[in-house]
């Protein structure tokens, strides 16, 4: 249907490009924050080194048999041993928000120094702890940014790991470090031909490599006694002791440290730092101003990324629970609706009065004949009014050539679908009016079933059960699943709650008095059916869903057509919600509709689709950065709930289950299209642009597509026999 001028077209001079630039920028920023957060929370590369070869031919003997401190930065490679009765306490893998402060407390208690080899990603997450380390007099060293095995890291990766950690230290504590301990390293005699080039490379970058001589094995949590025993030097030798203040539960480490320090002090040991052994004034020089500025920016970016991701993850959890909870609740309510209607349900005395059927048509030559034939074949007395809204393809002539009784063709200049509907309503001869799109076919009993709820004087409108006719293509099958699980289940719930937001344009019935009360069909929005239904609800009329009244409509067959249709629906729905927004504050039926219907639409038809893409984003995030197995299992669990709901919905609607095998694929493809449509519609609405009407291309052939479902044969002679048996409408 062509859009009329009063509803507006795209504003003159309006260019959509700026809003898409803004949206794309936001997406890029969010993606960068996810990558930053994923990087600082994950380890890239191998977690442990593959068993190295025993070949040490390239390692100098003075290094292989030397001390734990290796200097290759100043002249020929040399190593230093620790003086006797001297212990350097070193802690790896921190800082940790729980265990590092407890370790620092023990060190302060005995007034001993220590050297902490820090992971840069953790420094950016806990800068306050690093500052506390500096205030306590601790020495800081580099343990890479994400804890990879540098043996298997290319040179560019090593550079990145080192430089990012230095920036983290500069941003957190305003210092840098000349000390480096490679992850997964141990003692000097473990250096082989694979690890020696790494040590040399570190020296070329100005680092002193610090290994260990005494491993307490606290990482294995062998017990406090075992850690104390492992950490006690033999024969008064000087040692570089390995402990951990992060990387797991460290209760044993803290307790062992509290016993080990006074024990060694009583034995005459002194505690020192690497810098003191080297004779250097400091191993943690003050960072240059530009380095510190970049470091502060890095820390800020990481903290921002953490906060954003945590916030969105929490929101996603809430959304996920709401989605599942709403689905289960709606299925329960829908079942209650179905059971009520099946228990000898009656609206009252049978409605037998004739019905006026209004068919607005603009360039519907492919479908109009099938539509009109199905209507006149009805087992309920009808008059059919086809309002040709300025078609240029001979739609009206096709209807005239059918020569069917009780069919009138009204030709008018193009004015839009609301104008065509209002014309048909004004010319209708009967009190009950059925509105049908020009691309829809009815079953023989559809009209009869559709109007039975009007036996109840409170009913002002009835929504029918829309089915997809063209289900052979993938897009058509996806829409079929959507209609059965989503639209029709939703309408059952809205029916019981008395807050129906939409009687679909494809199949709906109305009292003329209700239509007059709301001044007919408005052209103020692009979703005239939603706008009309909301107005009728607010006027105090009941709007009913009659699932047994079925109609088959031609759905968009391409992505482009589908996008256009849903873009218009989404935009029009938001227009209608805004138009009727005062219902939220009103009393009576209008307030009930506002606080139930509008609130539900806002939450689950607008806000949720805008947030729901996070499900897929975090699914990918979890697979890449967290745990692919657990993430996949969680997603499969959600899919299982949806599948169970889908099976029940299909059973409730008497649909074969074979189409549901496409449901998982629908979650990966079709759903994303719907999300993008809603995002674009929302951006358009916020930008204040006005959207024009898009006429969809029709393929036709509805009779053939619905053969065996409508009970109407496509053969012309059969149609004429049905018409002859139908009572004439006076």
Name the descriptors.
Spore Coat Polysaccharide Biosynthesis Protein SpsA, Chain A; elongated; 2 domains; 50% helix; 730 residues; single chain; eight-stranded mixed sheet; alpha/beta; TIM Barrel
**Helical stretch tally:** 26
Describe the global form: elongated
The beta-strand count equals 18
- Which structural class do you get from the secondary structure elements? alpha/beta
Q: Can you tell me the number of structural domains?
A: 2
Provide the residue-averaged pLDDT. Answer: 84
| CATH homologous superfamily placement of the largest domain | Spore Coat Polysaccharide Biosynthesis Protein SpsA, Chain A
Q: From the 3D structure, determine the CATH topology of the largest domain.
A: Spore Coat Polysaccharide Biosynthesis Protein SpsA, Chain A
* Straight-line distance between termini: 31 Å
The CATH level-2 architecture of the largest domain is identified as: Alpha-Beta Complex
Radius of gyration (CA) equals 37 Å
Strand content: 5-15%
User: What portion of residues is helical?
Assistant: 40-55%
Q: Quick one: CATH class of the largest domain?
A: Alpha Beta
Pick out the low-confidence regions: 1-16, 43-52, 713-730
What is the spatial order of strands in the main beta sheet? 13-12-11-14-17-16-18-15
For the report, how would you describe the main beta sheet?
Answer: 8 strands, mixed
How do the strands and helices of this protein lay out in sequence?
Elements: H1 17-40, H2 61-64, E1 69-71, E2 78-80, E3 86-94, H3 99-110, E4 115-118, H4 120-125, H5 127-135, E5 139-142, H6 155-173, E6 179-180, H7 196-204, E7 208-210, E8 214-215, H8 224-230, E9 239-244, H9 251-266, E10 270-272, H10 274-278, H11 289-342, E11 355-361, H12 368-376, E12 382-389, H13 395-402, E13 407-412, H14 417-427, E14 432-435, E15 440-442, H15 446-451, E16 459-468, H16 474-497, E17 508-511, H17 512-517, H18 528-538, E18 542-553, H19 559-579, H20 588-611, H21 613-626, H22 628-652, H23 663-668, H24 670-687, H25 702-705, H26 716-725
Parallel strand pairs: 3-4, 3-9, 3-10, 4-5, 6-7, 8-9, 11-12, 11-14, 12-13, 16-18
Antiparallel strand pairs: 1-2, 1-7, 14-17, 15-18, 16-17
């Amino acid at each position: 249907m062509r859009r009329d001028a009063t509803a507006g077209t795209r504003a003159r001079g309006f260019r959509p490009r700026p809003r898409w630039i803004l949206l794309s920028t936001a997406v890029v920023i969010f993606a960068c924050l996810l990558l930053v957060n994923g990087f600082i929370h994950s380890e890239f590369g191998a977690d442990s080194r593959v068993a190295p070869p025993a070949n040490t031919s390239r390692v100098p003997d003075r290094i292989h048999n030397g001390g734990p401190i290796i200097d290759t930065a100043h002249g020929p490679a040399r190593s230093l041993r620790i003086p006797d009765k001297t212990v350097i306490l070193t802690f790896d893998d921190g800082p940790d928000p729980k265990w590092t402060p407890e370790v620092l407390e023990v060190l302060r208690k005995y007034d001993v120094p220590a050297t902490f080899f820090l992971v840069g990603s953790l420094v950016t997450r806990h800068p306050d702890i690093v500052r506390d380390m500096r205030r306590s007099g601790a020495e800081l060293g580099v343990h890479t940014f994400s804890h990879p095995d540098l043996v298997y890291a290319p040179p560019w990766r090593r550079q990145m790991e080192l430089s990012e950690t230095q920036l983290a230290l500069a941003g957190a504590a305003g210092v840098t470090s000349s000390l480096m301990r490679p992850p997964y390293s141990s003692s000097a005699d473990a250096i082989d031909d694979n690890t020696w080039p790494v040590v040399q490379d570190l020296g070329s970058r100005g680092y002193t490599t610090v290994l260990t001589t005494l491993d307490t094995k606290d990482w294995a949590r062998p017990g406090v006694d075992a850690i104390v025993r492992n950490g006690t030097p033999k024969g008064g030798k000087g040692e570089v002791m390995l402990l951990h203040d992060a990387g797991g539960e460290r209760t044993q480490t803290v307790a062992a440290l509290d016993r080990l320090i006074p024990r060694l002090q009583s034995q005459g040991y002194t505690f020192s730092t690497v810098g003191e052994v080297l004779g250097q004034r400091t191993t943690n020089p003050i960072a240059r101003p530009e380095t510190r500025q970049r470091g502060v920016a890095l820390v800020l970016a990481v903290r921002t990324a953490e906060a954003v991701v945590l916030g969105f993850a929490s929101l996603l959890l809430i959304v996920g629970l709401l989605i599942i909870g709403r689905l289960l609740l709606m299925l329960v309510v829908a079942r209650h609706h179905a059971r009520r209607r099946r228990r000898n349900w009656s609206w009252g005395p049978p409605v037998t009065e004739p019905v006026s059927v209004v068919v607005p048509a603009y360039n519907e030559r492919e479908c109009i004949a099938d539509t009109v034939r199905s209507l006149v074949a009805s087992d309920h007395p009808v008059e059919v009014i086809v309002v040709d809204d300025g078609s240029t393809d001979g739609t009206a002539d096709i209807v005239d050539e059918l020569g069917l009784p009780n069919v009138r063709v009204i030709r008018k200049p193009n004015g839009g679908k609301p104008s065509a509907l209002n014309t048909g309503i004004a010319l209708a001869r009967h009190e009950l009016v059925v509105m049908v799109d020009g691309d829809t076919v009815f079953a023989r009993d559809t009209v009869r079933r559709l109007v039975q709820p009007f036996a109840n004087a409170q009913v002002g409108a009835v929504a029918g059960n829309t089915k997809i006719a063209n289900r052979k293509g993938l897009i058509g099958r996806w829409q079929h699943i959507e209609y059965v699980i989503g639209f029709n289940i939703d309408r059952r719930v809205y029916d019981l709650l008395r807050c129906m937001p939409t009687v679909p344009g494809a199949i709906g019935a109305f009292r003329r008095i209700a239509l007059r009360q709301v001044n007919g069909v408005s052209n103020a929005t692009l979703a005239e059916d939603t706008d009309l239904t909301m107005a009728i609800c607010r006027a105090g009329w009941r709007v009913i869903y009659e699932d047994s009244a079925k109609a088959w409509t031609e759905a968009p067959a391409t992505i482009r057509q589908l996008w256009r249709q849903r873009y218009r629906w989404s935009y029009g729905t938001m227009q209608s919600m805004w138009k009727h927004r005062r219902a939220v504050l009103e009393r009576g039926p209008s307030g009930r509709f506002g606080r139930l219907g509008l609130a539900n639409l806002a939450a689950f038809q607008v806000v949720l689709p805008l947030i729901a893409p996070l499900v897929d984003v975090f699914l990918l995030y979890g697979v890449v950065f967290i745990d692919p197995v657990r993430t996949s299992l969680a997603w499969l669990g959600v899919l299982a709930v949806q599948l169970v709901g889908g099976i029940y919905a299909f059973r409730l609607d008497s649909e074969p289950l074979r189409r549901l095998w496409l449901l998982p694929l629908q979650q990966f493809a079709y759903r994303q299209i719907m999300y993008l449509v809603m995002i674009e519609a929302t951006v358009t609405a916020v930008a204040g642009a006005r959207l024009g009407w898009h006429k969809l291309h029709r393929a036709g052939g509805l009779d053939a597509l619905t053969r065996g479902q409508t009970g109407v044969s496509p053969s012309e002679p059969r149609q004429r026999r049905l018409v002859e048996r139908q009572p004439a409408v006076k």
